Amino acid sequence: MKTYLVSLSRDADRRVAIGRQFPDTSASFEWIEAIDGRTLSARRYFSLCAPAFRERKILLSPSEIGCALSHMEAYGRFLASDARVALFLEDDVEGTDADLDHIARVAATLDGEFFLACGGQDGLPSRRWLIGQRLRTADEIAYYRVNRHAYAQLWRTCCYAMTRRVAERMLTRQTALLARADEWEPLLRDLGDATYFIDALSHPLDLASSSIELERVALGGALHARRVGRIGQRIAGLFRKRRIYRSILLAQLGRIGGHETIFRRR
User: How far is CA 258 from CA 82, 143, 149, 242, 248, in A?
Assistant: First the structure.
């Protein structure tokens, strides 16, 4: 499994910290120089965000665009390699070499094409609605097959793994109509039941240093799309709430089929 580390050029201190966290494996990480969307020219920014605004009335922030472009670059590098599976990390992820070993073991267990979320849901209200079927590897590493109705509750791009075909789909989708890099649900719906979760790595609870999180809050919808226009905003809000509540309800009903809450309420 090949590992790609997405990090801004100026964040050398973060990469040093990554080296300390993962002393046995970080030397093999391939660095993807992230794009800072805040440095894009106005012309470039509007040319990238205009399609999503026209089609979906969603306004992507500069940092969201930078994040999406950075991960597209990572997908391209992955597809140019001969690796079957790749792990994508951002430089604020928290974990250990043992955690990466667990991820690699789970990935090696999975057949066919798959998407494996590797944690990073810390502090998100949506994590309480993540439902899945508990599974174990031969050496007793716990992971989950995520209930398809809970896909809308998965967020962030700090730690995830995928196979080549999934990366191809993601790159094709983003090239056709740029969306937030962590808008996983549309992609995962096409994968059927091939979405998995292992609670291996963490994301900092303090978001003060995260430009993308701060911009989402400033634009009026942390981890949700911004809709513009009074009437359009109300209509979109109703449909969004309906979709979220439907997702939550169906995910909860999934318990009947042997699914359980991945994160226990604390």
Answer: 37, 14, 14, 25, 16
